[in-house]
Write a structure and sequence with these properties.
With about 525 residues, this protein is mainly α. Helix content is about 50%, strand content about 0%. The chain is built from 20 helices and two strands. α9 runs antiparallel to α10 (about 240-250) and α11 (about 265-280) crosses α13 (about 310-325). The protein starts with a helix and ends in a 16-residue tail after the last helix.
Length: about 525
Protein backbone atom coordinates (compact mmCIF):
# COMPACT_ATOMS: atom_id res chain seq x y z
CA UNK A 1 0.00 0.00 0.00
CA UNK A 2 1.38 3.42 -0.89
CA UNK A 3 1.74 6.27 1.58
CA UNK A 4 -1.09 8.07 -0.24
CA UNK A 5 -3.39 5.09 0.25
CA UNK A 6 -2.45 4.86 3.88
CA UNK A 7 -3.38 8.51 4.29
CA UNK A 8 -6.73 8.07 2.55
CA UNK A 9 -7.55 5.02 4.69
CA UNK A 10 -7.04 6.98 7.89
CA UNK A 11 -10.34 8.77 7.38
CA UNK A 12 -11.12 10.74 10.51
CA UNK A 13 -7.48 11.29 11.38
CA UNK A 14 -7.29 13.84 8.58
CA UNK A 15 -10.02 15.87 10.27
CA UNK A 16 -7.93 16.32 13.43
CA UNK A 17 -4.86 18.41 14.06
CA UNK A 18 -2.72 15.37 13.32
CA UNK A 19 -2.23 16.23 9.67
CA UNK A 20 -0.97 19.70 10.56
CA UNK A 21 1.34 18.19 13.18
CA UNK A 22 2.66 15.71 10.61
CA UNK A 23 3.27 18.51 8.11
CA UNK A 24 5.30 20.34 10.74
CA UNK A 25 7.31 17.22 11.52
CA UNK A 26 8.26 16.77 7.87
CA UNK A 27 9.26 20.42 7.69
CA UNK A 28 11.40 19.95 10.82
CA UNK A 29 13.20 17.01 9.21
CA UNK A 30 14.23 19.29 6.35
CA UNK A 31 15.10 22.26 8.58
CA UNK A 32 17.39 20.19 10.81
CA UNK A 33 19.42 17.95 8.49
CA UNK A 34 21.57 16.63 11.35
CA UNK A 35 18.56 15.59 13.41
CA UNK A 36 17.27 16.80 16.76
CA UNK A 37 18.21 15.17 20.03
CA UNK A 38 18.74 16.27 23.60
CA UNK A 39 22.05 17.38 25.08
CA UNK A 40 24.02 14.82 27.07
CA UNK A 41 25.59 15.45 30.51
CA UNK A 42 28.05 12.63 29.83
CA UNK A 43 29.15 13.88 26.41
CA UNK A 44 29.25 17.54 27.41
CA UNK A 45 31.43 16.77 30.44
CA UNK A 46 33.85 14.92 28.17
CA UNK A 47 34.33 18.10 26.17
CA UNK A 48 34.86 20.07 29.39
CA UNK A 49 37.69 17.69 30.29
CA UNK A 50 39.19 16.88 26.89
CA UNK A 51 38.64 20.09 24.91
CA UNK A 52 38.65 23.23 27.09
CA UNK A 53 40.02 24.99 24.02
CA UNK A 54 36.68 24.66 22.22
CA UNK A 55 34.39 27.73 22.15
CA UNK A 56 31.79 28.08 24.94
CA UNK A 57 33.78 26.16 27.53
CA UNK A 58 32.21 28.17 30.36
CA UNK A 59 28.74 27.52 28.93
CA UNK A 60 29.36 23.79 29.17
CA UNK A 61 30.39 24.13 32.80
CA UNK A 62 27.26 26.16 33.51
CA UNK A 63 25.16 23.49 31.75
CA UNK A 64 26.57 20.85 34.10
CA UNK A 65 25.99 22.99 37.17
CA UNK A 66 22.40 23.70 36.13
CA UNK A 67 21.69 20.03 35.47
CA UNK A 68 22.93 18.64 38.79
CA UNK A 69 20.19 16.92 40.77
CA UNK A 70 19.46 17.73 44.42
CA UNK A 71 21.15 14.47 45.47
CA UNK A 72 24.36 15.50 43.70
CA UNK A 73 24.05 13.30 40.63
CA UNK A 74 23.24 13.71 36.95
CA UNK A 75 21.12 11.73 34.54
CA UNK A 76 18.28 9.31 35.08
CA UNK A 77 17.12 7.31 38.09
CA UNK A 78 18.84 4.31 39.63
CA UNK A 79 21.85 2.96 37.73
CA UNK A 80 21.27 5.43 34.90
CA UNK A 81 22.94 8.09 37.05
CA UNK A 82 26.32 6.37 37.22
CA UNK A 83 27.81 7.13 33.79
CA UNK A 84 26.75 10.82 33.55
CA UNK A 85 27.67 11.50 37.19
CA UNK A 86 31.14 10.00 36.83
CA UNK A 87 31.71 11.99 33.65
CA UNK A 88 30.42 15.27 35.14
CA UNK A 89 32.56 14.89 38.27
CA UNK A 90 35.68 14.14 36.23
CA UNK A 91 34.99 17.03 33.86
CA UNK A 92 34.44 19.53 36.67
CA UNK A 93 37.52 18.24 38.52
CA UNK A 94 39.61 18.70 35.39
CA UNK A 95 38.29 22.23 34.93
CA UNK A 96 38.80 23.22 38.56
CA UNK A 97 42.33 21.83 38.72
CA UNK A 98 43.67 22.93 35.34
CA UNK A 99 41.58 25.75 33.83
CA UNK A 100 41.39 29.45 34.54
CA UNK A 101 37.96 30.24 36.04
CA UNK A 102 36.76 32.48 33.24
CA UNK A 103 32.98 32.71 33.10
CA UNK A 104 32.32 30.25 35.92
CA UNK A 105 32.45 30.31 39.71
CA UNK A 106 35.11 28.14 41.40
CA UNK A 107 32.99 28.02 44.56
CA UNK A 108 29.97 26.69 42.67
CA UNK A 109 32.09 24.07 40.90
CA UNK A 110 33.75 23.01 44.17
CA UNK A 111 30.36 22.59 45.83
CA UNK A 112 29.02 20.56 42.88
CA UNK A 113 32.05 18.27 42.96
CA UNK A 114 31.80 17.69 46.71
CA UNK A 115 28.10 16.85 46.54
CA UNK A 116 28.61 14.50 43.59
CA UNK A 117 31.53 12.69 45.24
CA UNK A 118 29.42 12.11 48.33
CA UNK A 119 26.84 10.41 46.14
CA UNK A 120 29.39 8.35 44.20
CA UNK A 121 31.04 7.07 47.39
CA UNK A 122 27.70 6.24 49.04
CA UNK A 123 27.89 2.45 49.26
CA UNK A 124 24.31 2.14 50.46
CA UNK A 125 22.35 4.42 48.13
CA UNK A 126 24.77 5.64 45.45
CA UNK A 127 24.37 4.79 41.75
CA UNK A 128 27.03 2.06 41.97
CA UNK A 129 24.66 0.03 44.17
CA UNK A 130 22.28 -0.46 41.22
CA UNK A 131 22.76 -2.82 38.28
CA UNK A 132 24.42 -1.08 35.35
CA UNK A 133 21.88 -0.57 32.55
CA UNK A 134 22.77 -1.98 29.15
CA UNK A 135 24.18 1.28 27.81
CA UNK A 136 26.72 1.24 24.96
CA UNK A 137 30.32 1.02 26.23
CA UNK A 138 29.31 1.33 29.91
CA UNK A 139 31.79 -1.41 30.81
CA UNK A 140 34.54 0.76 29.32
CA UNK A 141 33.31 4.19 30.37
CA UNK A 142 32.78 3.43 34.07
CA UNK A 143 36.29 2.11 34.84
CA UNK A 144 37.87 4.80 32.64
CA UNK A 145 36.08 7.56 34.56
CA UNK A 146 36.78 5.91 37.93
CA UNK A 147 40.50 5.82 37.10
CA UNK A 148 40.52 9.47 36.06
CA UNK A 149 38.73 10.58 39.22
CA UNK A 150 41.14 8.55 41.36
CA UNK A 151 44.07 10.29 39.61
CA UNK A 152 42.58 13.70 40.41
CA UNK A 153 42.05 12.77 44.07
CA UNK A 154 45.49 11.23 44.57
CA UNK A 155 47.09 14.59 45.36
CA UNK A 156 44.17 17.01 45.77
CA UNK A 157 44.35 20.76 46.45
CA UNK A 158 43.38 22.17 49.85
CA UNK A 159 39.69 22.48 49.09
CA UNK A 160 39.62 18.75 48.29
CA UNK A 161 41.85 17.66 51.16
CA UNK A 162 39.05 15.81 52.93
CA UNK A 163 38.91 13.43 49.94
CA UNK A 164 42.63 12.59 50.07
CA UNK A 165 43.37 8.88 50.23
CA UNK A 166 39.79 7.67 49.68
CA UNK A 167 40.80 5.72 46.58
CA UNK A 168 38.63 5.33 43.49
CA UNK A 169 34.84 5.57 43.58
CA UNK A 170 33.20 2.15 43.90
CA UNK A 171 32.09 0.32 40.78
CA UNK A 172 28.97 -1.85 40.61
CA UNK A 173 29.27 -5.48 41.62
CA UNK A 174 30.63 -7.62 38.80
CA UNK A 175 32.20 -4.75 36.86
CA UNK A 176 35.97 -4.68 36.37
CA UNK A 177 38.69 -3.15 34.19
CA UNK A 178 39.53 -6.21 32.11
CA UNK A 179 37.90 -5.10 28.86
CA UNK A 180 39.21 -1.55 29.22
CA UNK A 181 42.70 -2.94 29.78
CA UNK A 182 42.40 -5.03 26.62
CA UNK A 183 41.32 -2.00 24.60
CA UNK A 184 44.22 0.02 25.97
CA UNK A 185 46.66 -2.74 25.02
CA UNK A 186 45.13 -2.92 21.56
CA UNK A 187 45.57 0.80 21.00
CA UNK A 188 49.10 0.72 22.40
CA UNK A 189 50.03 -2.02 19.94
CA UNK A 190 49.03 0.14 16.99
CA UNK A 191 46.54 -2.40 15.70
CA UNK A 192 43.22 -1.19 14.22
CA UNK A 193 40.40 -0.36 16.63
CA UNK A 194 37.11 -2.18 15.93
CA UNK A 195 34.64 0.26 14.33
CA UNK A 196 32.03 -0.29 17.05
CA UNK A 197 34.45 1.19 19.63
CA UNK A 198 34.92 4.48 17.78
CA UNK A 199 31.73 5.94 19.22
CA UNK A 200 33.38 5.86 22.68
CA UNK A 201 36.96 6.59 21.64
CA UNK A 202 37.18 9.25 24.38
CA UNK A 203 37.57 6.52 27.01
CA UNK A 204 41.25 6.40 25.98
CA UNK A 205 41.89 9.98 27.04
CA UNK A 206 45.13 11.39 25.55
CA UNK A 207 45.87 8.04 23.86
CA UNK A 208 42.92 8.65 21.55
CA UNK A 209 44.70 11.55 19.82
CA UNK A 210 45.24 10.51 16.19
CA UNK A 211 45.06 6.86 17.24
CA UNK A 212 46.45 4.46 14.66
CA UNK A 213 43.95 3.50 11.99
CA UNK A 214 41.34 6.05 13.10
CA UNK A 215 40.34 8.83 10.75
CA UNK A 216 37.53 11.34 10.76
CA UNK A 217 34.83 10.94 8.13
CA UNK A 218 34.61 13.40 5.26
CA UNK A 219 32.04 15.43 7.21
CA UNK A 220 34.30 15.56 10.28
CA UNK A 221 33.04 13.23 13.01
CA UNK A 222 34.73 10.22 14.51
CA UNK A 223 32.14 7.64 15.55
CA UNK A 224 29.32 10.21 15.14
CA UNK A 225 30.36 11.48 18.58
CA UNK A 226 31.50 14.96 19.64
CA UNK A 227 33.49 13.49 22.56
CA UNK A 228 35.18 10.85 20.42
CA UNK A 229 35.98 13.47 17.77
CA UNK A 230 37.44 15.90 20.31
CA UNK A 231 39.55 13.15 21.88
CA UNK A 232 40.87 12.08 18.47
CA UNK A 233 41.54 15.66 17.36
CA UNK A 234 43.36 16.84 20.47
CA UNK A 235 44.40 20.49 20.67
CA UNK A 236 44.17 21.63 17.04
CA UNK A 237 46.68 24.49 17.57
CA UNK A 238 44.53 26.80 15.47
CA UNK A 239 44.53 24.48 12.47
CA UNK A 240 41.17 24.33 10.69
CA UNK A 241 39.85 20.88 9.82
CA UNK A 242 36.63 19.05 9.02
CA UNK A 243 36.67 17.58 12.54
CA UNK A 244 36.90 21.03 14.11
CA UNK A 245 34.11 22.29 11.85
CA UNK A 246 31.97 19.35 12.95
CA UNK A 247 32.56 20.13 16.62
CA UNK A 248 31.71 23.78 16.08
CA UNK A 249 28.42 22.78 14.42
CA UNK A 250 27.63 20.34 17.23
CA UNK A 251 27.98 23.12 19.81
CA UNK A 252 25.30 25.24 18.21
CA UNK A 253 22.08 23.38 18.95
CA UNK A 254 22.28 23.40 22.76
CA UNK A 255 24.22 26.55 23.60
CA UNK A 256 27.58 24.84 23.92
CA UNK A 257 26.40 21.49 25.30
CA UNK A 258 26.36 18.52 22.92
CA UNK A 259 24.39 15.31 22.30
CA UNK A 260 25.93 11.84 22.41
CA UNK A 261 25.43 11.25 18.69
CA UNK A 262 25.12 13.64 15.80
CA UNK A 263 24.16 13.65 12.99
CA UNK A 264 21.32 11.10 13.23
CA UNK A 265 19.44 11.96 10.03
CA UNK A 266 18.91 8.42 8.67
CA UNK A 267 17.74 7.10 12.04
CA UNK A 268 15.48 10.08 12.66
CA UNK A 269 13.93 10.24 9.19
CA UNK A 270 13.21 6.53 8.88
CA UNK A 271 11.60 6.34 12.34
CA UNK A 272 9.51 9.50 11.85
CA UNK A 273 8.30 8.66 8.35
CA UNK A 274 7.40 5.04 9.13
CA UNK A 275 5.56 6.06 12.31
CA UNK A 276 3.49 8.68 10.48
CA UNK A 277 2.78 6.27 7.61
CA UNK A 278 1.41 3.66 10.01
CA UNK A 279 -0.98 6.28 11.39
CA UNK A 280 -2.14 7.34 7.94
CA UNK A 281 -1.12 10.96 8.39
CA UNK A 282 2.02 11.00 6.26
CA UNK A 283 1.93 14.11 4.04
CA UNK A 284 3.80 14.47 0.79
CA UNK A 285 7.42 13.62 1.51
CA UNK A 286 10.03 15.83 -0.16
CA UNK A 287 11.96 13.91 -2.79
CA UNK A 288 15.27 14.73 -1.14
CA UNK A 289 14.23 12.93 2.08
CA UNK A 290 13.35 9.79 0.16
CA UNK A 291 16.53 10.01 -1.89
CA UNK A 292 18.57 10.42 1.29
CA UNK A 293 17.17 7.20 2.71
CA UNK A 294 17.85 5.30 -0.51
CA UNK A 295 21.38 6.68 -0.67
CA UNK A 296 22.01 5.61 2.93
CA UNK A 297 21.52 1.95 2.00
CA UNK A 298 24.72 0.40 0.76
CA UNK A 299 25.65 -3.23 0.27
CA UNK A 300 26.36 -3.44 4.00
CA UNK A 301 23.14 -1.72 5.04
CA UNK A 302 22.65 1.69 6.65
CA UNK A 303 24.31 3.34 9.64
CA UNK A 304 22.72 5.62 12.22
CA UNK A 305 25.40 8.26 11.74
CA UNK A 306 28.72 8.91 9.99
CA UNK A 307 31.58 6.97 11.49
CA UNK A 308 29.30 4.32 13.00
CA UNK A 309 29.14 0.77 11.62
CA UNK A 310 26.08 -0.23 9.66
CA UNK A 311 23.44 -1.84 11.84
CA UNK A 312 20.43 -4.07 11.32
CA UNK A 313 18.08 -1.76 13.23
CA UNK A 314 18.62 1.35 11.08
CA UNK A 315 18.83 -0.80 7.96
CA UNK A 316 15.55 -2.57 8.67
CA UNK A 317 13.57 0.57 9.50
CA UNK A 318 14.98 2.33 6.44
CA UNK A 319 13.94 -0.61 4.21
CA UNK A 320 10.51 -0.72 5.83
CA UNK A 321 10.04 3.03 5.40
CA UNK A 322 11.01 2.99 1.75
CA UNK A 323 8.57 0.14 1.16
CA UNK A 324 5.78 2.14 2.86
CA UNK A 325 6.65 5.06 0.58
CA UNK A 326 6.23 2.88 -2.48
CA UNK A 327 9.99 2.47 -3.00
CA UNK A 328 10.59 -1.19 -2.00
CA UNK A 329 14.24 -2.21 -1.96
CA UNK A 330 15.85 -5.65 -1.89
CA UNK A 331 16.44 -6.46 1.82
CA UNK A 332 19.38 -8.77 1.06
CA UNK A 333 21.76 -6.48 2.98
CA UNK A 334 20.08 -7.63 6.20
CA UNK A 335 21.43 -11.16 5.87
CA UNK A 336 24.91 -10.10 6.96
CA UNK A 337 23.49 -9.54 10.46
CA UNK A 338 21.93 -13.01 10.70
CA UNK A 339 23.39 -15.09 13.54
CA UNK A 340 21.38 -18.15 12.56
CA UNK A 341 19.12 -17.66 15.59
CA UNK A 342 18.32 -13.94 15.51
CA UNK A 343 19.66 -10.79 13.81
CA UNK A 344 22.40 -8.89 15.62
CA UNK A 345 22.16 -5.13 15.74
CA UNK A 346 25.65 -5.17 14.28
CA UNK A 347 28.16 -7.88 13.56
CA UNK A 348 29.81 -9.12 16.74
CA UNK A 349 27.15 -7.63 19.01
CA UNK A 350 27.36 -8.57 22.68
CA UNK A 351 23.76 -9.40 23.54
CA UNK A 352 20.65 -9.08 21.42
CA UNK A 353 17.85 -6.58 20.79
CA UNK A 354 14.17 -7.47 20.51
CA UNK A 355 13.33 -4.15 18.82
CA UNK A 356 16.00 -4.73 16.17
CA UNK A 357 14.52 -8.15 15.45
CA UNK A 358 10.99 -6.76 15.40
CA UNK A 359 12.10 -4.22 12.82
CA UNK A 360 13.85 -6.90 10.76
CA UNK A 361 10.62 -8.93 10.81
CA UNK A 362 8.75 -5.91 9.45
CA UNK A 363 11.37 -5.21 6.79
CA UNK A 364 11.32 -8.75 5.43
CA UNK A 365 7.54 -8.97 5.70
CA UNK A 366 6.93 -5.67 3.92
CA UNK A 367 9.68 -5.90 1.29
CA UNK A 368 9.16 -9.56 0.34
CA UNK A 369 5.38 -9.65 0.72
CA UNK A 370 3.98 -13.08 -0.09
CA UNK A 371 7.26 -14.39 -1.51
CA UNK A 372 7.56 -17.98 -0.22
CA UNK A 373 11.25 -17.36 0.39
CA UNK A 374 10.29 -15.03 3.25
CA UNK A 375 8.31 -17.62 5.21
CA UNK A 376 11.22 -19.36 7.00
CA UNK A 377 12.80 -16.15 8.31
CA UNK A 378 9.41 -14.72 9.34
CA UNK A 379 8.67 -17.89 11.31
CA UNK A 380 12.11 -17.88 12.91
CA UNK A 381 11.93 -14.23 13.96
CA UNK A 382 8.38 -14.66 15.24
CA UNK A 383 9.43 -17.58 17.40
CA UNK A 384 12.49 -15.75 18.71
CA UNK A 385 10.46 -12.71 19.69
CA UNK A 386 7.83 -14.82 21.43
CA UNK A 387 10.56 -16.67 23.33
CA UNK A 388 11.90 -13.33 24.63
CA UNK A 389 8.58 -12.11 26.02
CA UNK A 390 8.55 -11.69 29.79
CA UNK A 391 6.13 -13.81 31.80
CA UNK A 392 3.95 -10.77 32.54
CA UNK A 393 3.53 -10.01 28.82
CA UNK A 394 5.96 -7.14 28.25
CA UNK A 395 9.20 -6.98 26.30
CA UNK A 396 12.33 -5.05 27.29
CA UNK A 397 15.21 -3.94 25.11
CA UNK A 398 18.76 -2.68 25.14
CA UNK A 399 18.04 0.50 23.16
CA UNK A 400 15.35 2.00 25.36
CA UNK A 401 14.77 2.28 29.10
CA UNK A 402 11.02 1.77 28.84
CA UNK A 403 9.33 -1.59 28.28
CA UNK A 404 6.49 0.30 26.57
CA UNK A 405 8.71 1.10 23.57
CA UNK A 406 9.93 -2.48 23.24
CA UNK A 407 6.41 -3.89 23.66
CA UNK A 408 5.01 -1.44 21.09
CA UNK A 409 7.68 -2.39 18.52
CA UNK A 410 7.18 -6.13 18.96
CA UNK A 411 3.37 -5.99 19.08
CA UNK A 412 3.16 -4.07 15.81
CA UNK A 413 5.59 -6.45 14.09
CA UNK A 414 3.89 -9.61 15.35
CA UNK A 415 0.46 -8.11 14.71
CA UNK A 416 1.23 -7.76 11.02
CA UNK A 417 3.70 -10.53 10.26
CA UNK A 418 3.63 -13.03 13.12
CA UNK A 419 0.61 -15.01 11.97
CA UNK A 420 -1.64 -17.12 14.23
CA UNK A 421 1.31 -18.41 16.28
CA UNK A 422 1.73 -14.92 17.76
CA UNK A 423 -1.85 -14.53 18.99
CA UNK A 424 -1.25 -15.73 22.56
CA UNK A 425 1.81 -13.48 22.93
CA UNK A 426 -0.18 -10.51 21.66
CA UNK A 427 -2.96 -11.20 24.16
CA UNK A 428 -0.41 -11.32 27.00
CA UNK A 429 1.12 -8.03 25.83
CA UNK A 430 -2.25 -6.27 25.69
CA UNK A 431 -3.11 -7.58 29.16
CA UNK A 432 0.16 -6.22 30.56
CA UNK A 433 -0.47 -2.81 28.97
CA UNK A 434 -3.96 -2.71 30.43
CA UNK A 435 -2.82 -3.78 33.90
CA UNK A 436 0.05 -1.28 34.04
CA UNK A 437 -1.95 1.79 33.00
CA UNK A 438 -1.77 4.58 35.58
CA UNK A 439 -4.84 6.02 37.25
CA UNK A 440 -4.68 9.17 35.11
CA UNK A 441 -4.73 7.14 31.88
CA UNK A 442 -0.99 7.44 31.14
CA UNK A 443 1.83 4.95 31.05
CA UNK A 444 5.46 5.25 32.14
CA UNK A 445 8.29 3.35 33.75
CA UNK A 446 9.06 6.04 36.34
CA UNK A 447 6.25 8.51 35.70
CA UNK A 448 3.59 8.99 33.07
CA UNK A 449 5.07 10.52 29.92
CA UNK A 450 3.62 11.50 26.57
CA UNK A 451 6.08 9.19 24.83
CA UNK A 452 5.22 6.07 26.80
CA UNK A 453 1.52 6.90 26.80
CA UNK A 454 1.68 7.04 23.01
CA UNK A 455 3.28 3.58 22.90
CA UNK A 456 0.74 2.10 25.27
CA UNK A 457 -2.14 3.61 23.33
CA UNK A 458 -0.74 2.40 20.00
CA UNK A 459 -0.55 -1.15 21.37
CA UNK A 460 -4.23 -1.07 22.29
CA UNK A 461 -5.16 0.51 18.96
CA UNK A 462 -3.27 -2.16 17.04
CA UNK A 463 -5.88 -4.76 17.97
CA UNK A 464 -9.62 -4.81 17.25
CA UNK A 465 -11.69 -2.83 19.74
CA UNK A 466 -13.32 -4.74 22.57
CA UNK A 467 -14.95 -4.12 25.91
CA UNK A 468 -11.61 -5.10 27.46
CA UNK A 469 -9.70 -2.25 25.82
CA UNK A 470 -12.36 0.42 25.25
CA UNK A 471 -12.23 2.28 28.58
CA UNK A 472 -8.43 2.18 28.76
CA UNK A 473 -8.17 3.52 25.21
CA UNK A 474 -10.53 6.41 25.89
CA UNK A 475 -8.70 7.32 29.12
CA UNK A 476 -5.31 7.18 27.44
CA UNK A 477 -6.42 9.24 24.45
CA UNK A 478 -7.85 11.90 26.75
CA UNK A 479 -4.71 12.01 28.87
CA UNK A 480 -2.46 12.19 25.80
CA UNK A 481 -4.47 15.10 24.44
CA UNK A 482 -3.49 17.13 27.53
CA UNK A 483 0.21 16.22 27.54
CA UNK A 484 2.86 18.39 25.92
CA UNK A 485 4.62 16.26 23.31
CA UNK A 486 6.90 19.06 22.11
CA UNK A 487 8.65 19.56 25.43
CA UNK A 488 11.77 17.63 26.38
CA UNK A 489 10.62 14.95 28.78
CA UNK A 490 12.64 12.43 30.73
CA UNK A 491 15.14 10.99 28.25
CA UNK A 492 14.48 7.29 27.75
CA UNK A 493 16.59 6.20 24.78
CA UNK A 494 19.92 4.43 25.28
CA UNK A 495 23.23 5.84 24.15
CA UNK A 496 26.23 6.47 26.39
CA UNK A 497 23.63 8.03 28.65
CA UNK A 498 19.88 8.49 28.21
CA UNK A 499 18.71 10.83 25.45
CA UNK A 500 15.49 12.14 23.90
CA UNK A 501 15.16 12.10 20.06
CA UNK A 502 12.72 14.97 19.81
CA UNK A 503 11.09 14.38 16.44
CA UNK A 504 10.94 10.58 16.75
CA UNK A 505 9.06 10.89 20.03
CA UNK A 506 6.81 13.62 18.65
CA UNK A 507 5.95 11.37 15.69
CA UNK A 508 4.83 8.61 18.08
CA UNK A 509 2.56 11.06 19.90
CA UNK A 510 1.11 12.39 16.63
CA UNK A 511 0.54 8.81 15.43
CA UNK A 512 -1.23 7.81 18.65
CA UNK A 513 -3.50 10.84 18.58
CA UNK A 514 -4.35 10.20 14.92
CA UNK A 515 -5.06 6.51 15.51
CA UNK A 516 -7.22 7.36 18.53
CA UNK A 517 -9.23 9.79 16.39
CA UNK A 518 -9.90 7.05 13.84
CA UNK A 519 -10.96 4.62 16.56
CA UNK A 520 -13.27 7.27 18.06
CA UNK A 521 -14.98 7.51 14.67
CA UNK A 522 -15.82 3.82 14.83
CA UNK A 523 -13.07 2.32 12.65
CA UNK A 524 -10.41 -0.26 13.44
CA UNK A 525 -7.27 1.76 12.81
CA UNK A 526 -5.08 -1.07 11.50
CA UNK A 527 -6.68 -3.58 9.10
CA UNK A 528 -7.55 -6.70 11.06
CA UNK A 529 -6.90 -9.22 8.31
CA UNK A 530 -4.04 -10.87 10.18
CA UNK A 531 -5.61 -10.86 13.63
CA UNK A 532 -7.15 -14.28 14.18
CA UNK A 533 -8.08 -14.46 17.86
CA UNK A 534 -10.47 -12.36 19.91
CA UNK A 535 -9.30 -10.61 23.07
CA UNK A 536 -12.58 -11.41 24.82
Amino acid sequence: MSAEALTRDAGGAKDSGSTRAADELIAELSRHPSGRTSASPYETARLVSLAPWLPRHADRIQYLLAGQRPDGGWGGPDGYALVPTLSAVEGLLAASLHDEPVGWSPAAVHDAIDRALRLLFDRLAGPSTCPVPDLPAADLIVPAMVDRIADHLADPPTWLAHWRGVGPPPMPAGMDRQRLDRVRLLVGSGRPIPPKLLHALEILGPAARRAAGVTATADGPVGASPAATAAWLGDPDGTQSAALDYLTRALGEHGGAVPCATPIAVFERSWVLSTLARAGVLPTVPAELVAGLRDALGQGGAATGPGLPTDADTTAVTLYTLALLGRPTDPACLWRFDTGEHFGTWQGEDGASVTTNAHVLEAFGRCLGDDPAAAPVLRRLTGWLIDHQHADGRWTDRWHASPYYATYCVVLALREYGGPSADAALRRAVSWVLESQRADGSWGRWQGTAEETAYGLLVLLAVPPSSTTRDATVAAAHRLSTMQDGAIESPLWHDKDLYHPVLIVRAAVVAARAAAAVRANGSAHIPASRWTASLE
